[in-house]
Design brief:
- The protein is of the alpha+beta class and 208 residues long.
- Helix content is 54%, strand content 7%.
- The chain has nine helices and four strands.
- Strands 2-1-3-4 form a four-stranded mixed β-sheet.
- A hairpin with a 5-residue loop joins strand 3 and strand 4.
- The longest helix has 23 residues.
- It is globular, with a radius of gyration of 17 Å.
- The two termini are 31 Å apart.
- The relative contact order is 0.13.
- Bound molecules: glutathione.
- The site of glutathione has 14 residues, from helix 3 and helix 4.
Length: 208
């Protein structure tokens, strides 16, 4: 059985969604936010971050995008992503890498600004630059969604859920919804999705 180390409102959201869509049983372990992490947790997550997925064979992995890609591969019938030989596979890999390497780190720079400057008065500037980088990244994804129902291919994939998770973290949600209408359209669809509604009750990613 899988084991998911997570926390409400964290990147564990998309992994929990993937496991639920795949009907894969898992044990959930909520990891408290603390500066004094459990050494056993550091063994599997050296940066003390969630999500971490422990696989049925006992191996553990960090990195939300990698976890999503692996789950999609291991549960092909769940349709979590285009298969390796599908034309939309390239888009899926591209957007998963883009979101986890551009948008997610920009979120971290905003929410953990003190880590990104040695200047005690510098966090405001770090946060402003982080939001500017989020704006650049979301604008790229919004343009890609123009005229499309889904970010990748012709059906819901983990890329859509990953995107909605990220945009829900944007510091000013109302301005995000106004600035990126194509992302907002997708987000509105997912806000109505039964599984997202269920997950949102524990994760509280957006107002119900
Ligand atoms: N690159 C990692 C980032 C994970 C991450 O930053 N997780 C946050 C929660 S959303 C966390 O655990 N932060 C605690 C910390 O950095 O101290 C991934 O994509 O999974």
């Amino acid at each position: 059985m899988y084991k998911l180390y997570t926390r409400p409102g964290s990147g564990g959201f998309v992994v929990e969604a993937a496991l639920a869509l795949a009907n894969a049983p898992f044990e959930q372990i909520d990891v408290p936010k603390t500066d004094l992490p459990d050494p056993a947790f550091l063994d599997i997550s050296p940066l003390n971050q969630v999500p971490v997925l422990t696989l049925p064979d006992g191996r553990s992995m960090t990195e939300s995008a990698a976890i999503c890609i692996l789950l999609a591969e291991r549960h092909p019938d769940a349709g979590l992503a285009p298969m390796a030989d599908a034309p939309a596979r390239a888009d899926f890999l591209r957007w998963m890498a883009f979101m986890s390497s551009v948008l997610y780190p920009a979120m971290l720079r905003f929410y953990y600004a003190y880590r990104y400057t040695t200047d005690a008065d510098g966090t405001k500037a770090v946060k402003q630059a982080a939001v500017a980088e989020m704006d650049r990244g979301f604008a790229v994804v919004d343009a890609a969604l123009q005229g499309r129902d889904w970010l990748v291919g012709d059906s819901l994939s983990l890329a859509d859920i990953y995107l909605v998770m990220l945009v829900a973290w944007y510091p000013n949600v109302d301005s995000a919804r106004a600035a990126w209408p194509h992302i907002e359209r997708l987000w509105a669809t997912l806000r109505d999705h039964p599984l997202m509604r269920t997950l949102n009750t524990s994760h509280e990613m957006w107002p119900a």
